Predict the 3D structure of the following.
Amino acid sequence: MEDSTNDLRKTLAKDSHSLTLKRAADRRSDGRFRRREIACDDADEECDAEAWETLSSGIERVQSVLDQNRALIQQVNDNHQSKIPDNLVKNVALIREINGNINKVLSIYSDLSVNFTDLVRQRKAVSKNINGNVGAKSGSDIMDAAAVQ
């Protein structure tokens, strides 16, 4: 009885996991389309495809790594529940891979932050040059200069 219950739980967990991954992929693709549409359709805002693409690609890369981690975590759980010595040994490598993926996510977010900050600063500089405010310094420019020192 216990074995059939565990088998049923595993089957349900795998089905649920597959459904969750599919829903996440659907949300990502639908969300990307909606976000681009909203960002580019607003008449008051200029559509900045480069900034949007930087954000979108970074977030997509993070989501891909997180999806991979979700699958690895599920495998670790399955191995742990099986209590088979070889599977428990495999968990060591899986957990190391999960840890490496977490470091990838941190790196992607760090790069994304730097790239997006650089894009914003470039846009501010271009905007100031276009508007003729080259000599004027705003409060944020003073703060930026203070942060560099």
Observations:
- DSSP finds four helices and no strands in the chain.
- The helical segments are 2-41, 49-82, 85-131, 139-148.
- Residues 63-123 form one domain.
